[in-house]
Design a protein that fits this description.
Number of helices: 3
Oligomer: single chain
Mean pLDDT: 94
Strand order of the largest sheet: 1-2-5
Order of helices and strands: HHEEEEEH
CATH superfamily of the largest domain: IHF-like DNA-binding proteins
CATH topology of the largest domain: HU Protein, Chain A
Structural class: alpha+beta
Shape: elongated
Helix content: 40-55%
Length: 93
């Protein structure tokens, strides 16, 4: 599902809301999640899962084309851990 499909589904299920308001709500939720993760905070959506940020240390990598050593800087990457309810629903429990 992409963002526009999510907006359309929410708008269809809530005919009392204007589509532009639903778009603003979805955008605000995503923006808040992104801002919290940028601060290094953990975002938990009960029953769905938790978003967090993990730090990857710098290392020496290899260029696959030439085989030369390349210095890879440390970086922060998003991480998602599924919630129990989501795992159970995916596994038919």
């Amino acid at each position: 599902m992409i963002r526009s499909e999510l907006v359309q589904k929410i708008a269809d299920e809530n005919p009392h809301l204007y589509q532009r308001d639903v778009e603003r709500i979805v955008a605000t939720i995503f923006d808040e999640i992104i801002e919290a993760m940028a601060r290094g905070d953990r975002v938990e959506l009960r029953g769905f899962g938790a978003f967090s940020v993990k730090k990857r240390d710098g290392r020496v990598g290899r260029n696959p084309r030439t085989g030369d050593s390349v210095e890879v800087e440390e970086k922060h990457v998003p991480f998602f851990k599924t919630g129990k309810l989501l795992r159970d629903r995916l596994n038919g429990k």
